[in-house]
Design goal:
It is a single chain. The protein is of the alpha/beta class. It has one domain (1-332): Aspartate Aminotransferase, domain 2 (3-Layer(aba) Sandwich), CATH 3.40.640.10. The chain has 13 helices and nine strands. The strands form two sheets. A seven-stranded mixed sheet has the order 1-7-6-5-4-2-3, sandwiched between helices. Helix 5 runs parallel beside helix 11, helix 6 packs parallel to helix 7 (122-129) and helix 6 (95-106) crosses helix 10 (249-258). The longest helix has 24 residues, at 279-302. The protein is globular, with a radius of gyration of 20 Å. The N and C termini lie far apart (41 Å). The relative contact order is 0.16. It binds pyridoxal-5'-phosphate (PLP). Pyridoxal-5'-phosphate binds at residues 42, 94-96, 120, 169, 173, 200, 202, 230, 232-233, 238, 243.
């Protein structure tokens, strides 16, 4: 029997579609409840500030026009905020888009990408969609690093002649584990120069661990380093889809070649630039998260449940039971 799926490229045949959580209004109807709180995608419950919402209303009248394909104003705002030149920036339709640009530019069926077990689900997705081989490295077992954390020594050893990309989530979703500054810097120094290292800092703004690095400070030293960040989490703009990469201009230029010309919409560009000015709103979200994480840790400990210490705005817990059953029970 032949099907269209047989005609898809091998990597795509092996993929399963990403399973997102159900929309809130559908859940509320299905379960007969109101004011449900969705925790599944690590969004910021505060959402955008009043100021950002005002900017969005003001921009609606401009929607007949294509967005600025170069994202001039947002790049200028980011450049000032991050203290990096604008030509080091790559804007994406969410930072997932930037991850996909990396795969499109550097991976093909003759190449491989290295990432950790239990890492962010998008790394295997973009790797396989590019037809490339995924070299998934077992995480720390707890003997020489935080259990479930990326084993950077093993990831370094997993780099082969065909490897062109290494994905590192710092901190990682869903484990919440992070790589300490000295270890990650040492890793970068040993990776061959032709292998692109992506350090995904989607939760950067939430982290307060003393040994957590700001990988932007390493951009000057490593032409093969790309740091990705997003407005989807601490900035509360997940629905608008805007993220970015920071690298040396050469790498940014390569990603720009495969980028769709209008990949970041105009509302997203305006809102993101405005959100950078809202330090108070950001701080409030980070503080609320800190309290919430403490509350969860205490509650879970009180229940005698083991969890992985997390630097993000989410927490992985061993319920000791079938995850599917627990999921359904919690839904109800
Ligand atoms: C949520 C998340 C992202 C952000 O994705 P966007 O496309 O920017 O919304 C990136 N990396 C990790 C590890 C995440 O958890």
């Amino acid at each position: 029997m032949s099907s269209l799926l047989d005609q898809a490229v091998d990597g795509v045949q092996a993929l399963q579609p990403y399973a997102p959580g159900k929309p809130l209004d559908e859940l509320e109807r299905e379960f007969g409840i109101r004011q449900a709180v969705k925790l599944a995608s690590n969004e910021n419950p505060l959402g955008p500030s009043a100021r950002v919402q005002q900017i969005l209303r003001e921009q609606v009248g401009q929607l007949g026009r294509y967005p600025d394909g170069n994202g001039f104003a947002l790049k200028a705002a980011l450049s000032a905020h991050l203290q990096v030149p604008a030509d080091c920036l790559t804007l994406g339709n969410g930072s997932n888009d930037v991850l996909e640009l990396v795969a499109r530019a550097f991976l093909n069926p003759d190449r491989s990408a290295v990432f950790s077990a239990h890492a962010f689900a998008v790394y295997p997705l973009v790797t396989r969609a590019a037809g490339a081989r995924a070299r998934q490295v077992p995480a720390h077992d707890g003997s020489n690093g935080p259990r479930y954390g990326h084993d950077l020594a093993a990831m370094l050893a997993a780099i082969e002649a065909d490897t062109r990309v290494v994905f590192i989530a710092n901190p990682n979703n869903p484990t919440g584990t992070w790589a300490p500054a000295a270890e990650l810097r040492g890793f970068l120094e040993q990776v061959p120069a032709h292998v692109v290292v992506v350090i995904d800092e989607a939760y950067f703004e939430y982290v307060d661990a003393a040994d957590y690095p700001n990988a932007l400070t390493w951009i000057d030293a490593f032409p093969n380093l790309l740091v990705t960040r997003t407005f989807s989490k601490a900035y509360g703009l997940a629905g608008l889809r805007v993220g970015y990469g920071v690298s040396q201009p050469e790498l940014a230029g390569i990603l720009n070649r495969v980028r769709q010309p209008f990949n970041v919409n105009s509302l997203a560009q305006a809102a993101a630039a405005a959100a950078l000015q809202d330090a108070d709103h950001l701080q409030r979200g980070v503080e609320i998260n800190r309290q919430g994480m403490r509350q969860l840790e205490q509650g879970l400990s009180g229940l005698g449940l083991v969890f992985i210490p997390s630097a993000g705005n989410f927490i992985s817990v061993d319920t000791g039971r079938d995850a599917g059953e627990v999921y359904t029970a919690l839904l109800r």
